[in-house]
Amino acid sequence: HAAHERIMYDKLEKEFNSGSVAVQNLLIPYIFNVSIDEKEALESKIGDLEKCGFSITPYGENTFALRSVPTRCGELDFAGFLNTLIHDVTQRGVIDDFALFKDKIMQNACKSAIKGEDDISKEEIVKLVADIAKSDAVLFCPHGRPIVVKISKTEVEKWFKRIV
Question: How far is CA 41 from CA 28, 44, 99, 153, 158, in A?
C-alpha cells in the first residue's frame, strides 16, 4: 500500500507541477461571496488558479462562481478550500500551487492505492517493485510510513530460535 501510494502521489505532484492537471467541470457552479479587498486579491490570482485546474469567474458585485476543479480534487470541501485560498491570497499575496493542494493529493493517493487486504497478481507486484526501483521516490509514503524495511539475517534467525 505504502509503495503504491508513493507512486500515485509522485504522479499527482508531477501533474500539478507540470500544469497538465485533468479538470472536472461542476454540474452546478459553487457560488460564493467575498469582501471588496478579497475580490481584488482573488481577481489578481484567477490566472494562477486556472493553471492549477480551478475555474473561478466573477458572478456579480462581490460574488464569484467556482466552475471547475482538478479531477483529483472532486470531493473537495469547497467552503473550506475557498476560505484557505482567499486567506492565503489576501494575507500573503501568493498561491503556492502545490502546497495548497498537497493534503488533498496525499488523501487521493491514499484512497487510490491498493490496500493491504487487496489480492493482486504476481505481475502487479513485479510492476510495483519495478516502478519503485526505477523512480527517484523516497522510500516512504507521503504520510511518512516506510515502503521497505531491512531485516538482518540475525533477526530472522532469532524468530526461528536458531540463535538466542
Answer: 24, 5, 19, 60, 63
